[in-house]
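Example 9 (inverse folding). The structure is encoded as follows.
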């Protein structure tokens, strides 16, 4: 059984704060060959994740906010913004799938 609790969140966030990019992940999958990639990301304030697309094969990403907030932006093939939301528990927006 894999449990994500406050202790894990605090430890991962503390580790992220010490990293240059202010983020750290904890993998819950065995490796890149797993069909389902599961991981917990600690992304600290002032962090920017560059737009990217998972290809070969094409993959979805699901963002579930546990604390804090994050802006999620989707782009079309010409680079124009096609969708935008802020996930934030206090606003009642918990999940975004891209």
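The amino acid assigned to each position is listed next.
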């Amino acid at each position: 059984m894999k449990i994500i609790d406050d202790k894990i969140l605090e430890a991962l966030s503390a580790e992220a704060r010490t990293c240059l990019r202010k983020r750290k992940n904890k993998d819950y999958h065995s490796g890149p060959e797993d069909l389902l990639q599961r991981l917990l990301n600690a992304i600290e304030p002032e962090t920017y994740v560059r737009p990217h697309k998972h290809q070969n094969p094409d993959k979805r990403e699901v963002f579930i906010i546990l604390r804090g907030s994050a802006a999620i932006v989707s782009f079309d093939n010409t680079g124009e913004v096609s969708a935008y939301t802020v996930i934030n528990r206090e606003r009642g927006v918990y999940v975004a799938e891209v």
